[in-house]
Specification:
Layout: H1 2-39, H2 45-62, H3 71-80, E1 85-86, E2 89-90, E3 92-96, E4 103-105, E5 110-114, H4 115-120, H5 123-138, H6 141-152, H7 155-160, H8 171-183, H9 188-204, H10 210-222, H11 228-235, H12 242-254
Parallel strand pairs: 3-5
Antiparallel strand pairs: 1-2, 4-5
Helix pairs in contact: 2-6, 2-8, 5-9, 5-10, 6-8, 10-12
Length: 281
């Protein structure tokens, strides 16, 4: 009886070990397959735009948006209306009535400007900052930020297991993704490229390119203050915040367009291209 008991116990232990090993091997195979799926999963501009639209819709519902006749809306309309289509991007824009200094643009073309930013910048400086944010969209930085936020919520795993389809997300997950978009930080190169885009945006549309230097000088001075979240985010990849303003100045000097910028409440106005006079025969 003792031998039979020991033999049965031995078979039971071997069975448990075999079961455990089988489970480990199965998990390894599943994980390997899943990782392979993630590696082959393409997070497209369209995917980023669809998710961004959902996230921005949620943010619009949770923040106080300036109405169509609000002075902030009227000012942004005056400053930015002619840029509803920029570099192939269909843009929509609104003002959040929040005293925080902030602005962002997302992969679906949504541009949101906080009233706090509009309070401290004149029209041309405002265009420089908006141009910078649009640059992140044009350069696919916003798509990559959305992908990172999506992956952080472990949703990329689900997408990779659903034949390359974006997984459905809950309202709670959408809220986390929206917050992640506001807090996302870009690399030094991404920020530099967005700065260059802003400069070219101002130059291409006939605005005062020196407003970029002025805008970044202002943000640099305010860095570390009570309203520093957006500023610190923009400056986070640059040890010397002043460097960005200096780079803007150098670009203007190289183009022969540099003039010390006089900050004020001057309305932004693009220079109209001059028409060539027809020669009289």
């Amino acid at each position: 009886m003792k031998r039979l008991f020991l033999l049965a116990f031995g078979f039971l232990m071997i069975g448990n070990v075999f079961k455990a090993n089988a489970q480990i091997n199965l998990n390894d195979r599943v994980n390997a397959a899943l990782q392979s799926g993630i590696a082959g999963f393409t997070f497209s501009d369209s995917d980023a735009a669809n998710l961004s639209k959902q996230a921005v819709t949620k943010m619009d519902q949770e923040n106080k948006v300036a109405g169509p006749k609000d002075p902030y809306t009227l000012r942004l309309e005056r400053v930015f209306a002619r840029h509803k289509n920029e570099n192939g991007l269909a843009l929509n824009y609104k003002v959040y009535l929040i005293k925080e200094i902030n602005a962002f643009a997302t992969a679906d073309g949504s541009v949101r400007v906080f009233s706090g930013l509009m309070d401290v910048m004149d029209d041309n400086e405002l265009l420089a900052v908006i141009g910078h944010e649009i640059g992140h969209v044009a350069n696919h930085d916003s798509r990559d930020a959305m992908k990172a936020a999506y992956q952080k919520e472990a949703l990329l795993n689900a997408a990779a297991s659903q034949s390359d389809k974006i997984a459905a997300i809950t309202d709670g997950q959408l809220g986390k993704i929206a917050s992640a978009l506001l807090d996302s930080k870009h690399s030094r190169k991404q920020e530099s490229d967005a700065d260059l885009y802003s400069y070219e945006f101002l130059k291409r549309n006939g605005y005062n390119v020196n407003a970029e230097e002025s805008a970044f000088n202002l943000l640099a001075k305010m860095s570390g203050g009570a309203e520093a979240n957006f500023i610190d985010k923009m400056m986070s990849s640059h040890p010397d915040a002043q460097e960005r303003a200096e780079n803007a100045k150098k670009r203007a000097e190289a183009d022969g367009l540099y003039k010390p910028y006089v900050k004020g409440t001057a309305k932004a106005s693009a220079k109209k291209p001059t028409k060539k006079k027809k020669s009289k025969k």
